[in-house]
Amino acid sequence: GRASSDLRAHSTQPVEKDPMLANKTALVTGSTSGIGKAIATRLARSGANIVLNGFGNADEIEALRASLARETGVEIAYDGSDLTDPKAIEAMMGRIAERFGGIDILVNNAGTQFVSPVEDFPVAKWDLILALNLSAAFHTIRLAMPGMKTRGWGRIINTASAHALVASPFKSAYVAAKHGIAGLTKTVALEGAQSGVRCNAICPGYVFTPLVEGQIADTAKARGMTEEQVKRDVLLAAQPTKEFVTVEQVAGMAHFLCSPDADQINGALLQMDGGWVAQ
Ligand code: NAD
User: Nearest 5°: phi and psi at 231?
Assistant: First the structure.
């Protein structure tokens, strides 16, 4: 009861497990890599069953799935559906409902980028980025929302970007899709507000992922700069702290958004960008 949990809160015993999300199920799209992988790991450590999604080497994905299951003791499933295909999303959501009884925490994180002047932007790349970075979230949300409303609890977290709030040249599809996800976030927040469903977006600046790490080495070579110069003057030119966001920090924000302290955070576009969009 209440008294014993109060005692526990004041205990000096180390807390071994964070059971905040026990008996919840989370789908984290694009979780075979980068930010999604960190979010899935953090939510699993908090007791949620996890559905991983994304592309990659089958053996490496199975190794990730198995080690996370072993470490946390929760159920970790993997579904490699291509989220640019609405039919594949419907099938995936059906399989998850069958196995787990629905999704309590939906993290729309899968995304991709392409850089080109708008007049040369390949039409197929535009369609791909809009499908993955925006429409996929519409489909997962519309299919997860009924169960969340029925159960009276749901958390929808969209990995947006600083580019949901400001633009950069040559990223027309990405910026359009991320601004779109900002609007979707606010709309869904209003629709779920009285049903216990919360919908928010995390808006990171540059996050240090293996992808970015590779870019640093390549750019340094191409421009004859040191890696430190590339970080400060090229990649982090717009990021006032001149430091990358870490995937663990983004995962920490996702975890917080699932906590009771975040119950009144709804429809928020949460900047994690070292001050980029404050300028
Ligand atoms: P990443 O490339 O490391 O991961 C992308 C994930 O999406 C991978 O798991 C990949 O397999 C998956 N994916 C790609 N195409 C897919 C498809 N068709 N269907 C299903 N899954 C697919 O990238 P990341 O840096 O971790 O980015 C994750 C999210 O964070 C993206 O939405 C990105 O726009 C956003 N973001 C990243 C940064 C950054 O600096 N890295 C900054 C702001 C926002």
Answer: -60, -50
Q: Which atom of ligand 1 is nearest to the CA of 244?
A: 40
Is-contact 193 263, C-beta < 8 A? no
Task: Return the SS3 of 273.
Answer: coil
* Residue 141 dihedral angles phi and psi, to the nearest 5°: -65, -45
CA dist., res. 68 & res. 82, Å (int): 23
Ligand 1 pocket check for 200: Cβ under 6 Å = no
The atom number, within ligand 1, closest to the CA of 55 reads 11
Amino acid at 66: A
pTM of the model: 0.94
In this predicted structure, the answer to whether residue 23 has a pLDDT above a threshold of 70 is: yes
Q: Which of 113, 114, 36 is nearest to 79 (CA)?
A: 36
- Judged by phi (left if over 0) then psi (alpha if -120 to 50, else beta), residue 242 lies in left
Q: Are 212 and 235 a contacting pair, CB within 8 Å?
A: yes
Q: How far does residue 34's CA lie from ligand 1's centre (Å)?
A: 7
Q: Are 157 and 106 a contacting pair, CB within 8 Å?
A: yes
| pLDDT tens column, 100-159 | 999 999 999 999 999 999 999 999 999 999 999 999 999 999 999 999 999 999 999 999
Ligand 1 contact, 159 CB (< 6 A): yes
Tokens coding 86: 């609405």
Say yes or no: CB of residue 172 within 6 Å of ligand 1.
no
Longest CA span, the chain: 65
The owner of tokens 């890696």 is 227
Query: Residue 86: which region, alpha, beta or left (left: phi > 0; alpha: psi -120 to 50)?
Result: alpha
CB-based contacts of 270, cutoff 8 Å, min separation 6: 200, 201, 202, 203, 253
